[in-house]
Specification:
Shape: globular
Largest sheet: 10 strands, mixed
Mean pLDDT: 95
Strand content: 15-25%
Number of strands: 20
Distance between the termini: 8 Å
Radius of gyration: 22 Å
Number of helices: 12
Bound molecules: inosinic acid
Strand order of the largest sheet: 9-7-5-2-10-1-11-15-19-20
Low-confidence stretches: none
Length: about 425
């Protein structure tokens, strides 16, 4: 049975740990969207692994595949590959020949795009060139990995790209595209990674009757179609994107596991109805070590938003939930959950479409007593304090999906299994 693991909030829900945990039982782990804007941290026996592009399954020496829905920064990939190779010898990582590349001008354009926005309208991107790279993909201007096999046609593609972007780069005092430098760098990159590039039919040919784990990046609220647009990333983070981004049919995803924290965080700007700009928000950030893996920015923290998660569960077609970071709530006197919003004096139970309204809505909370004891490291549901169990069951009821596991620390094995993840 194939599974997709996806974030139900604004990313950083702890997907890396869950993918690492599950991947033991899978033959192939696939990344299908996003790029090195993602950051997955996995801690195993005091060793911390930080991954951006390479699927977390690499830590268990699983075969890993980056599908064509990913955008790949060559320099970043080579660095990450070299780093992981020091820990895992000969990692089995393959790249779809259809992957679109992120090149230097995409990062320059990312910077320009942000610079022309003002105040609250700034997106706060990771500045990794993700948006412009996806723009080029849809605009049919991408350099694909397969292009690196033909330097003559690559050069003519670059000439067209240069004509298109140089006037923009110049207008914003950015360096124009250096054709020769780009070609030189790409040919060096190609010689380093040529053996990892495979045809897009890789999965169909080799993994027909094998078990595949699809590792999502970011979260549904950052999905370009379903998220808090325009404060989103530029890819589809929903589970169905696992099919388009990897070359599998939609029926090859048999189970969708949604990951949500026991509270909410967001990095970058945009609406965040349950954000806490007070000592409680600070303490969630401290206890949860809420700093971005990619940009080291402090994450914004707030109460669990039941309305949002209930909505993203429906969009994603979720079969089960992994609840993470329960232990971060251990010291609180009381814990709140958003169960409705108020917009222009009316109560609503959905996230409105426009960002203007999303900024305006006020959360309506239900309050739960805190358990004020340590849950960190607990591995059995019976060992949780009653009040923690009540909180979990109330979340489950409200969001309308079964919680199948609970994570109680970043360590691989500090996980409560309610349902055997290898049987469903
Ligand atoms: P971009 O993906 O760099 O274009 O950034 C767009 C928005 O998505 C910004 O608010 C980023 O902070 C956010 N974002 C992108 N990737 C991640 C992630 O992996 N975790 C959390 N936020 C992310």
């Amino acid at each position: 049975m194939n599974k997709a693991v996806i974030g139900l909030q604004w990313g950083d829900e702890g997907k890396g740990k869950i993918v690492d945990y599950l991947s033991e039982n899978f033959d192939l782990v696939v990344r299908y969207q996003g790029g090195n804007n993602a950051g997955h941290t996995v801690i195993v026996e005091d060793i911390t692994y930080k991954l951006n592009l390479i699927p977390s399954g690499v830590i268990r020496d699983k075969i890993c595949f980056l599908g064509q829905g990913v955008v790949l920064d060559p320099e970043h990939f080579v660095n990450e590959y070299e780093k992981i190779s020091k820990r895992i010898s000969n990692p089995r990582i393959y790249l779809s020949s259809n992957i679109s590349l992120i090149l230097n001008y995409h990062k320059q354009l990312d910077k320009i795009n942000e610079s022309i926005l003002t105040g609250d309208s700034k997106i706060g991107t990771t500045a990794k060139g993700i948006g412009p790279a996806y723009q080029d993909k849809v605009g049919r201007k991408s350099i694909k990995l397969y292009d690196l096999d033909n330097m003559i046609s690559l050069k003519s593609k670059f000439e067209a790209i240069k004509k298109y972007y140089d006037p923009i780069l110049d207008a914003f005092d950015e360096n124009k595209i250096d054709l020769n430098q780009n070609i030189e760098r790409l040919s060096e990159f190609y010689s380093q990674i040529k053996s990892l590039i495979i045809d897009n039919s890789f999965i169909k040919k080799n993994f027909q009757n094998k078990k595949i784990l699809f590792e999502g990046a970011q979260g549904i609220l950052l999905d370009v179609d379903h998220g808090t647009y325009p404060f989103v990333t530029s890819s589809n983070t929903v589970a169905s994107s696992a099919a388009t981004g990897s070359g599998c049919g939609p029926n090859s995803i048999n189970y969708v596991l949604g990951i949500t924290k026991a509270y909410t965080t967001r990095v970058g700007s945009g609406p965040f109805p349950t954000e806490l700009n007070d000592e409680i928000g600070e303490s969630l950030g401290r206890r949860g070590k809420e700093f971005g893996t990619v940009t080291a920015r402090k994450r914004r923290c707030g109460w669990f938003d039941g309305v949002l998660v209930r909505q993203t569960i429906k969009i994603a077609g979720i079969n089960g939930i992994a609840l993470t970071k329960l232990d971060v709530l251990d010291e609180l006197d009381e814990i709140k959950v958003c169960i409705q919003y108020e917009l222009n004096g009316k109560k609503i139970d959905y996230l409105p479409s426009s960002s203007e309204d999303q900024f305006k809505i006020k959360p309506i909370y239900k309050t739960f007593p805190g358990w004020k004891s340590q849950t960190r490291g607990i591995r059995n549901i019976q060992d949780l304090p009653e009040k923690a169990k009540n909180y979990i069951y109330a979340l489950e009821d409200f969001i309308g999906a079964k919680i199948s596991s609970i994570s109680t620390s970043p360590e691989r094995d500090d996980t409560i299994l309610i349902e055997d993840p290898f049987k469903v």
